[in-house]
Fold:
Amino acid sequence: MAEVHQSPVVHPSKQVESKETLVRFLDDLLERYLHLLDRYQTLQQFLAQLLSKGYLSLAQANFSTPNRVRYGQNHYDDRMKASAQDAEDDEDDADDEVDTAKESTIMDDTRAPFEVRESRSKKTRDPLNWFGILVPPALRTSQSSFKDAVAGPIPTLASILKEMREVEIEVKRARKRIWKAA
Structure:
């Protein structure tokens, strides 16, 4: 079944075993890096598909408008804010909600803090409404594709890239240890 390697008693052979274990460790690191690279490339392809679908739908919506209204970043009010946010941004918003709730309960004791949070969430609107009530279905498809891209592969790609960089550092260290052991 599984072979058990016994450590040699002689000092020079210990050096050889040490080098062999370092080489095995390097092989494992490189294998891990290749798996991460494969996963990264797969997610890159998925992200490219989502973004192309979004841009194609946006172009279709721009082409098919009867009154020649253009949809894009140059054609909406500059006060518009992002509807998708980081987790850190959500924590900051939660702190703001608590502060707003405290201020409103001080001014008006009849309103509960929960009602303040609920009324604030009602203020969050769909960004498509900035272009009117009846927007083309292609524009809604474009929005969903871009939302899927932001929520899905982008954060995963960032974490995989960070992990790949960490493995690269470990590979350099392992190569240096092998070079010193030689």
In short: Confidence is low (pLDDT under 50) at residues 1-17, 97-119. The chain is about 70% helix and 0% strand.
